[in-house]
Amino acid sequence: MKKVIALVLCFIMLFSTSALAAGEGEKEVNKPAIISVITDFFERFFSMFTGSTNEKSNIDFTIEEGQLFEKNEHFKSSHASTVVKMNDGRLMSAYFAGDEEGADNVRIWFSVYDKGEWSKPVQVPSEDTVAHWNPVLINFGTHIRLYYKVGAEIPYWVTKYTETADGGKTWTEPKELVEGDTSGGRGPVRNKSIVLSDGTIIAGSSTEQGQWRAFFDLSVDGGKTWTKTDYITAKGVDGKEIGMIQPTIWQDGDGTVHAMFRTDCGRIYRSDSTDLGRTWCEAYSTGLMNNYSGIDCVRTDDGRLWLVHTPIGMRLRNILVLSVSEDNGETWKDVTTLAGNLFDLISEYSYPAIIARGNKLYITYTNKRKVINYAFIEYEA
C-alpha cells in the first residue's frame, strides 16, 4: 500500500512538473528519474507511520533484557556500546560516557556481565584530555583488544587501541593504530571486525571529512599493521553519490565477504567482495530503510544473518528491531522489536552492537543517550 500511495503522489507531481516545463518551453523533464526520486522520498516518509514492512518470522526465542546501569547513576550521557564474549564465558561491554557527546570529560568505560548481573562501570585508563568515541571490543584469543577514537572533531579522530589479558583488571598503554594518522577512520570505526577464512582481519572503516566515505582496513599479521582498501562507491536513485559509513561485515559459506552500510539516503546499502575483502563492487540498495543511524549484523553457524536496525527512512531513532535473513541478506523477516514504538517520536534507541555464540545472540544499544541497554536472545536452532 505504501508503494501504491507513493506512486500515485509522484505521478501527480510528475504531471504538474511536465505541464509547467511544457508551458515555459524549458528543457525536457527526465520522467523516469523524477518518478524514482519522488517514489523513494514518499516510501521513506510513510515508513515513519508504518514501520517495518517485513514479514514476521516464526522463530521461537527467549529473551533476557535490561540495563547495564541506572540512569544518571554514573554519568549524564552514554552512547555507542560494543560487546564481546570473553574466554571464561563472561561478557564485556564498553561505551563512551561523560557529560555529553564530544565533551572533554568523555572517556571509554566498561562493564562485565557475570552470574546474571553487570559490574559497575570502570574507566579504561587514558592520558588523553579530549573526547573519546566509538569503542570496539575484539577477542584475540589470548587477550581482548579495545579500539577507540580520540579527538575534539570527528573528521580528525585518531584511532587508538589498548589490550587486557585479565578481563579488564589491567590494560596496556594505549597506542595509535596507524602512527600519525588523523583521517578519523582507521581500523574498526564503530562495528566489530571479523576474521576471514584465510586469517585476514577485516575492519569496517569510514571517514567524515566533508562527505561520508566507507572503506575497509585489512590486517594479515594479527592486527599489527593495516592496509586500507579503496573507498566503496554508491549512487542513489537521483544519480548522486551516496554517503556511507560504519560498515558491518559478514562472510558467507562460499567465502564471499559482504557488508552493509549506514547511509545518508534513507536506505541500507550493501557491497560484496569475491577476493577476501581486497576489492568491492559498487554498493547497492538492500531496500531496507535506514534512519541515518548505525546498524550491526552477525552471521550465526546455521547460516542465518541477524540485523539490528531502525526500519525508518527518515531521521528518527525511536524504534529498534531485530530482523533475520535465511538467504544471505536477500530477504528479511522481523524477529522482535527490541525497544520503542512508532508513536514515541522523542525517544532514541540507537547504535546497536550484536555478537553470537551458537544459537545465542548478545545485543547492546543506546537508550536515550542516558544508559546502555542489553538484550540476550536464545533462539530455536
Summarize the helices and strands and which ones pair or pack.
Blueprint: H1 2-24, H2 31-50, E1 55-56, E2 61-67, E3 77-85, E4 91-98, E5 107-114, E6 117-118, E7 122-123, E8 132-139, E9 144-150, E10 158-164, E11 175-176, E12 194-195, E13 201-209, E14 211-219, E15 227-228, E16 244-251, E17 257-263, E18 267-273, E19 284-289, E20 296-299, E21 305-309, E22 319-325, E23 333-340, E24 349-357, E25 360-367, E26 371-379
Overview of the structural elements:
The protein is mainly beta and 381 residues long. 11% of the residues lie in helices and 43% in strands. It is built from two helices and 26 strands. The protein has a five-stranded mixed sheet with strand order 1-23-22-21-20, with no helix packed on it. Helix 1 packs antiparallel against helix 2. The longest helix is centred in the first third of the chain and has 23 residues. The two termini are 34 Å apart.
Shape: globular
Residues in helix, %: 10-25%
Q: How many strands?
A: 26
- Poorly predicted regions: 1-29
Report the span from N to C terminus: 34 Å
The helix count comes to 2
- Major sheet: arrangement of strands: 1-23-22-21-20
Oligomeric state of the chains present here: single chain
Mean pLDDT: 92
The helix/strand class is mainly beta
Main sheet attributes: strand count, strand direction, barrel closure: 5 strands, mixed
Radius of gyration, CA atoms, in whole angstroms:
21 Å
Strand content: 35-45%
Q: Which series of helices and strands comes N to C? A: HHEEEEEEEEEEEEEEEEEEEEEEEEEE
